[in-house]
């Protein structure tokens, strides 16, 4: 008897209700299958899909991002050598300078003693530094961030003014 009362108590405590659907009984009448729709071609599906940005008719990219130019590579700029440890790349001095020029107005940041998310630090930097141009924040691993400026004055102000703190934690800025 003890087992039955325990089972009954557990059944009473259960709040989940399960509804079991009955399977329809097979009938002798022939069933009519729904008409087959032709498969959608991937090209046709993409032509019909219109993004929100396209509906607005404007580009949501910032002008300075659109103006970013790619670094052109000449035939002698990158030399691939295959050694016993695998392939290695040799870059010409001119190509290295062109790559570095894109990042000359960039700093590396580290918030000391605190872990801060990308969105929070991005918003805090914009409100704290009030840049005249645009800044682009890139999240690196281990709570490091790379900040790229479009204006030299913003870059210099970031490096020379300070010390900077975010939520009471020191902000290390390095060129």
UniProtKB/TrEMBL annotation:
Residue stretches of biased makeup (Basic and acidic residues): 1-15
Q: Where is the composition biased (Pro residues)?
A: 32-41
UniProt-annotated stretches for the region Disordered: 1-49
Q: Which residues form the DUF4283 domain?
A: 100-174
Coiled-coil residue windows = none
Check the record and name the InterPro entries matching this protein: At4g02000-like, DUF4283
Record-given protein name: DUF4283 domain-containing protein
- Which organism was this protein described from? Turnera subulata
